[in-house]
Every structure is written in structure tokens, then in C-alpha cells.
Specification:
This protein has 359 residues and is of the alpha/beta class. It has 3 domains: 7-128, Rossmann fold (3-Layer(aba) Sandwich), CATH 3.40.50.2300; 158-298, Rossmann fold; 304-358, Winged helix-like DNA-binding domain superfamily/Winged helix DNA-binding domain (Arc Repressor Mutant, subunit A, Orthogonal Bundle), CATH 1.10.10. Helices cover 52% and strands 14% of the residues. The chain has helices at residues 15-27, 38-47, 68-79, 94-102, 117-128, 141-145, 147-151, 156-160, 171-183, 194-203, 225-230, 232-242, 256-266, 279-299, 304-314, 319-326, 330-344, 349-358, and strands at residues 7-11, 31-35, 52-56, 84-89, 108-111, 163-167, 187-191, 208-211, 246-251, 270-273. The strands form 2 sheets. A 5-stranded parallel sheet has the order 2-1-3-4-5, with helices on both faces. A 5-stranded parallel sheet has the order 7-6-8-9-10, with helices on both faces. Helix 15 packs across helix 17. The protein is elongated and about 95 Å long.
Length: 359
């Protein structure tokens, strides 16, 4: 599946700074839009969502009293709330910096005279792995008004109240994942540490685990398998795999080799990178994981003979061919199929075959 394109916006009237910032952001894997003034930035904000923006405070080269950058920050807050802005300037008072951070929602404040590429890249990475803004998930006024009617509708997923475990030491991510899983009908247990997570796994029947691999403040850049196994997230994956709990990893690690290794070693349902996290994709992955797990649970209710009949059915064999393969009569095949259909809650051969594919 192709990763969604992440965009960054540069609002800067100096060509040399445009080039410097664009080069760094492109190296970070971002597609870059550039605006020279407030109007151009507003047009780009309306045209595309952006993960981050770098905004110069003054967008007039000869006017040190020009604070158009604050107007851009205000536009970002209104037009693209998931975009995290970085304010960049060659001059500013401490009071103005505080205003930008507290009143205009800037992620951080950088001075041009002390600009360092490595520091800037670190800030960009922190933004990419930070959770998208929770406000994006809030219902609209129209949805709120229709909420009472929705409560009267029966939702079988909410009735079952399957339990999901969220293990994430970042409060923002933990809160967002808990909200998304609650909306999907799960009763959520959220925690920040290995010990708390293990306690929930021991005390309660968890059907889905969503966890970050690293529950530590820092992880060495160079890792091998032995070191990986010492990370608390991997230890939890060992537990969920052993107990047959479907697991989804949401992690800031995006190395292809490590992702492939986690899939093969721990049989996880999905690996979602924080840098490209998308709410709709997460909801879809959760639902697909739920359906697959339910299908496996249904198949486990079949007897060995019923499973043999179902597997042959999935291969396209007729009742007569199944009877010949298993050395039984066609009437016995029919009785087995009747029992299979009842246990899987299906009514056709194609629906039963689909259960095999899902399981």
C-alpha cells in the first residue's frame, strides 16, 4: 500500500532561506510547498493538508515591525489544525516568542542567527511522530445534534464490548488511540508502562493490543535482534503472541528491515508508522483485524472432520468429490455442511469459503 504523501509548508520571503529549509524538509521525506506572503500561504493551506509549517515572523524584508507571520499562524490554526507550525525569525523579543507559542499554537520558536540543521531535523522528526490534533476527531455541530437519534440504534460491536489494550508512553498518542478504539466499540485499557500492560493482560480478557515498540525515553540508533528483545514493547509482543491476542504496532520506527522482522517474528496484524499515521487507515486496520480474529474464533469451533470438509469446499470440490476424498457418503457431507453453516452463521458455500480465506 502506497504511503500517503506528507506535505510541509514554508512561508518565507527570503529565497536563500527557502532553499535551505526546502532542502532539509525534502530530505526528511516531505513534499514542500512555498509561499512568500500571507495570501499565498492561505491558498496553499486551503489546497492541501500539511503536517508542519515553517513560518518567518516578518514577511517584509525592510520592515522589522512586520509581524505577518503571526497572521499565518492564525490561518494555520483555523484552516489546517493538524499542521504544527515552527516560527522562524531573525529578530523577536521574548514576549513575542511566548505569544507565538501560547496564543498562536506554534510548536516551537527558532532564531535564524542560531539555526542548526541537525537541531531543525530533530524538531521535524518530533513533529512527524507526534499525534495528529485530537480536535480533528471531534464531531461537527450537525453530528452532535443527531447524536440522540444515534443512541437508539443498536450497534452489535458496542454490545459485545471487546477489550482493547493501548500501551503508549506518549500521553497525546495514548489519548488519541484510546478515543479511536472507543469509537470502534472497544472497552479500552490504556497504560504507559510494561508493568501496567502486563497486569491488564494477566487480569482481563484482551482481544486487541495496540502498542508502541519503545516504551523508553531513547533507543540506540543501531540495534540488533538481542537488543530489540530487551525493549519492553517487544517483550509485550511475546506475551500477546503467546496468548493469541491480535496486535497492532504504532511506532516511530520506520526502517523496512525492522518492520519486516517484526511481522515475521511476532505475527502482528499491522504495523503503522507514526510519521504517516492516518485516522481512517487506523480505523480500517482495526476493523479488518477484528473481522479476521472473529473468523478464526468461529473456525476454532469446528470439529476436525468439519474443518476437513470446509477446506475441501474452499478448494471448489462438489459434495460428491468431498465424499470420495474423505471416504464418506454424500449425505454425511451434507450433514457436515449443515453443521458448518450453523457454526459459521452463513447460508451459502461461497460465504463459508470466505470465512476460510479470512481465517
Amino acid at each position: 500500500m502506497k504511503k500517503p504523501t506528507l506535505r510541509a509548508l514554508i512561508v518565507e520571503d527570503d529565497l536563500s532561506w527557502q532553499q535551505i529549509l526546502s532542502e532539509i524538509l525534502t530530505d526528511c521525506g516531505l513534499e514542500v510547498d512555498i509561499a512568500n506572503n500571507v495570501d499565498e500561504s492561505a491558498r496553499l493551506l486551503k489546497a492541501h493538508p500539511h503536517r508542519l509549517a515553517v513560518v518567518d515572523l516578518s514577511l517584509s524584508p525592510n520592515d522589522h515591525n512586520n509581524y505577518d507571520g503571526l497572521r499565518v499562524l492564525d490561518s494555520i490554526r483555523r484552516l489546517d489544525p493538524n499542521c504544527k507550525p515552527i516560527l522562524l525569525t531573525g529578530f523577536a523579543t521574548v514576549e513575542l516568542a511566548v505569544t507565538a507559542l501560547t496564543d498562536y499554537g506554534a510548536f516551537t520558536f527558532l532564531r535564524k542567527e542560531s539555526f542548526h540543521r541537525s537541531q531543525f531535523r530533530d524538531i521535524v522528526y518530533r513533529i512527524l511522530v507526534s499525534p495528529p490534533h485530537l480536535a480533528a476527531a471531534l464531531p461537527s455541530a450537525e453530528q452532535k445534534n443527531s447524536a440522540p437519534a444515534a443512541k437508539n440504534q443498536t450497534n452489535p460491536q458496542k454490545i459485545t464490548q471487546e477489550k482493547a489494550l493501548v500501551v503508549e508512553d506518549d500521553a497525546g498518542w495514548r489519548s488519541m488511540l484510546e478515543e479511536l478504539l472507543s469509537d470502534a466499540g472497544f472497552q479500552v485499557r490504556a497504560c504507559a508502562s510494561f508493568g501496567d500492560a502486563l497486569g491488564y493482560l494477566r487480569r482481563e480478557k484482551i482481544t486487541l493490543a495496540v502498542l508502541d515498540l519503545s516504551l523508553q525515553t531513547s533507543v540506540a540508533a543501531e540495534k540488533n535482534t538481542a537488543n530489540d528483545l530487551n525493549l519492553e514493547g517487544y517483550r509485550l509482543l511475546n506475551t500477546t503472541r503467546a496468548e493469541g491476542i491480535a496486535s497492532i504496532v504504532v511506532s516511530g520506527t520506520s526502517e523496512p528491515e525492522e518492520i519486516q522482522w517484526v511481522y515475521s517474528e511476532y505475527a502482528i496484524s499491522a504495523y503503522i508508522e507514526k510519521q504517516t499515521f492516518d485516522r481512517a487507515t487506523f480505523r480500517r486496520v482495526v476493523e479488518e483485524t477484528r473481522l479476521t480474529r472473529n473468523a478464526k474464533s468461529e473456525l476454532s469451533a469446528l470439529t476436525d472432520r468439519e474443518r476437513e470438509v470446509l477446506n475441501l469446499l474452499a478448494q471448489g470440490l462438489t459434495n460428491k468429490e468431498i465424499a470420495e476424498k474423505l471416504f464418506i457418503t454424500t449425505n454425511t457431507v451434507k450433514r457436515h455442511l449443515k453443521a458448518i453453516f450453523e457454526k459459521l452463521d452463513v447460508h451459502t458455500r461461497s460465504a463459508a469459503t470466505a470465512k476460510v480465506a479470512a481465517g
